[in-house]
Write a structure and sequence with these properties.
heterodimer; A: alpha+beta; 6-stranded mixed β-barrel; B: 5-stranded parallel sheet; 38% helix
Chain lengths: 403, 207
């Protein structure tokens, strides 16, 4: 009976192809969204792990998080080091990592920070050595290949995030090392000390101008940070500290967990819409299977009647028809799931550049896909069930007498 | 082999009362009559495709009107071969597969042997891997006859087997039917209004 089902599919290849394509595409779209969402949430979760609060200049808290933690947005501005330091040494703070950024090379951010930043992401030096002096940097794991830079090479940074921004030509950075992979944003960053970032923006003419004044004051005035990543000693601090900072200082405190959730809910609407489109296509595919099988059975009613007369039971014919639908559904699901991964795999380069997001375990099923498979199968089954049930209501004598 | 008694059947508006029929193994019985006299209805009754309102049909030693639907299906599959006016077949299967589909022997090797032997006897061997659609009318009708014979039925029923065939094919089909019925010792009942067949088969019942 399986053979009969298979032969029937081959006999109408275009119909089968249409149904199969529909199921493939719909399953593919939905699976793609599931993988994307899953990876997105996991990667974002991984990156904010261990960061309870971010302090930066006033502005949009989401922007602060996107720029300071994920480095996919421009910074909100700078905060004076002096003011920031008070909070970095606050008794409730377990760890505070200062960041100074705003420059880039070929679109990849250069971060001025301390060793604590590398420790936070548990990165170790894979080649060369860590940065020690000014204008020495280490590259995130992905960058050594992408930028074709190796230990000992030098480059000029660009102001801002734009690849075509103004170059800081008076000082070149030297690569001293390459980091091990961490699966976080760090893989796509260039990391050096804070002084380098300060010095690059200390223009000589300003120096001269300022030298007329009190030198010490000048130092402090220009010492600015862009953001501070903070980890608290106790979760209790999470309730008071951000409010305190927001109310009493000119700085802003943002909680990554809250902002990322906000981002997910914004994003979620779009994903939901796309998922519904996917299910729409799937319904359409089911309808195509239904209609083509229904029509085919109308044409084939003589042969169904004939099979009954030669003693093949209704049940066996029914099973053969179900198999026909199931073969198409199952192959459709399989190819859909594979298709989505192939597309995502091909897109991985662009997505990594734009979102600093790498596919983790792309070839294993993500949550939601088993449910997707079951739903698709049920739909496919339902689409064949209705026409297939008609074999029992077929009047053999009448059908054959009229033939 | 085949006996009927007091067979009656009614559609919504028309009622039929059929004469009693007897047909011995290897014998050919022609049932003739004008359109609307219930020729096909009678054939479907004999084949268990329809159930009589009254009367009995005995094939071999089985009164088929007493069988349940399921058993009737099985009995028909095993012991009755039906050849229809138009050749029906499963379009997606090859000639050979169509035959195998109708064969109820469980042993696969014997199944294949039987089908091939019949194809050989009827000169259709070369066509066995073709789709039935690509055969000529005469060949399609021959396929129907072979298919009706694969299970060596007790009773062979044929509904206007020659009405759409030219003279040559008509005589070929008639000869094939007669020969195979005799070889198998099946009772053969042909429903027809084809004059050419009336000349060949002497025993007939007029409805």
């Amino acid at each position: 009976m399986l053979k009969l089902a298979w032969k029937n599919i081959l006999n109408k290849p275009l119909n089968a192809l249409l149904s199969w394509t529909g199921i493939s595409i719909s399953a593919g779209i939905i699976s793609m969204l599931l993988i994307f969402q899953n990876n997105f949430e996991r990667q974002f979760g991984k990156n904010i792990d261990g960061i309870d609060m971010v302090i930066g200049a006033k502005g949009s808290p989401l922007q602060l998080i996107l720029s300071s933690v994920f480095h996919i947005d421009a910074p909100t501005g700078n905060i004076p080091l002096k003011e920031a330091e008070q909070w970095m040494h606050h008794p409730l703070v377990e760890k505070a990592v200062p960041l100074a950024y705003g420059d880039s090379y070929e679109g990849y951010s250069i971060i001025g920070t301390t060793e604590a930043y590398l420790q936070h992401y548990e990165a170790v030096i894979a080649a060369g050595k860590a940065f020690e002096n000014n204008f020495e940097v280490v590259l995130g794991h992905n960058l050594s290949q992408k930028l074709s830079l190796k230990v000992g090479d030098t480059f000029f940074s660009t102001h801002g995030h734009d690849e075509h921004g103004e170059e800081h030509t008076d000082q070149a950075y030297t690569v001293t090392g390459v980091l091990s992979p961490t699966g976080t944003v760090l893989d796509n960053l260039i990391v050096g000390n804070i002084e380098s970032v300060w010095k690059i923006h200390d223009h000589p003419d300003e120096h001269q101008h300022c030298n007329h004044e009190d030198g010490h004051h000048h130092e402090d005035k220009h010492r600015e940070l862009t953001a501070i990543l903070v980890k608290f000693k106790t979760p209790m601090a999470l309730v008071q500290m951000p409010r305190l900072i927001n109310q009493e200082t000119s700085m802003m405190a943002a909680v990554p967990a809250i902002e990322v959730n906000r981002l997910f809910s914004l994003f979620g609407t779009g994903v939901t819409v796309l998922k519904n489109i996917g299910f729409g296509i799937m319904l359409l595919a089911a309808l195509i299977i239904f209609v083509s099988l229904y029509n085919a059975l109308k044409e084939r009613k003589y042969e169904l009647a004939l099979m009954r007369t030669v003693g093949i039971s209704g049940l066996r014919i029914f099973i053969s028809l179900l198999a026909e639908g199931l073969i198409i559904s199952i192959t459709g699901i399989c190819s859909g799931l594979v298709l989505s991964r192939i597309i995502l795999f091909l897109l991985s380069g662009a997505i990594q550049d734009n979102y600093h997001l790498a596919w983790d375990k792309l070839w294993s099923p993500v949550p939601g896909e088993p449910a997707l498979t079951v739903i698709t199968l049920c739909l496919g089954l339902l689409a064949v069930l209705i026409p297939a049930l008609r074999i029992w209501s077929l009047n053999i004598s009448k059908t054959l007498a009229n033939g | 082999m085949l006996h009927t008694r007091n067979l009656q059947f009614a559609y919504k508006s028309i009622a039929f009362k059929f004469p009693d029929i007897h047909c011995a193994p290897g014998e050919v019985l022609l049932i003739t009559g004008q359109s609307g006299k219930g020729k096909t209805t009678l054939l479907h009754l004999l084949g268990g495709l329809l159930r009589p309102e009254a009367g009995s049909i005995t094939i071999g030693s089985t009164e088929i009107q007493k069988l349940s639907n399921k058993h009737l299906d099985r009995f028909r599959g095993n012991h009755i071969g039906i050849i229809f006016q138009q050749a029906h077949y499963v379009a997606s299967l090859s000639v050979l597969d169509n035959l195998l589909l109708a064969t109820h022997t469980l042993d696969k090797k014997r199944k294949l042997q039987q089908a091939k032997r019949l194809l050989q006897q009827t000169g259709m061997e070369a066509l066995m891997h073709q789709k039935p659609d690509s055969l000529s009318m005469g060949q399609q009708q021959r396929l129907s006859i072979i298919r009706a014979l694969v299970n060596k039925p007790l009773l062979l029923l044929s509904d206007e087997p020659t009405s759409s065939l030219d003279d040559d094919n008509c005589y070929n089909v008639a000869a094939l039917l007669k020969e195979q019925a005799y070889n198998n010792q099946s009772a053969l009942v042909i429903v027809t209004h084809d004059r050419r067949l009336k000349e060949i088969f002497p025993k007939k019942i007029e409805l």
